[in-house]
Amino acid sequence: MRIIFIVMVASVLSILVFKYADQGLGGGEIMASPAELSAQN
Questions:
Q1: pLDDT of residue 7
Q2: Distance CA 6, CA 27 (A)
Q3: What is the pTM of this model?
């Protein structure tokens, strides 16, 4: 159960990092597509 919780937290944090990286760098299309694909799945 703890492993599942850790994986969920890590996935949420990675999505947030992708969003902040998109806003900070400005070239967000390259980094946004993997995050969107993982969010859809």
A1: 94
A2: 29
A3: 0.45
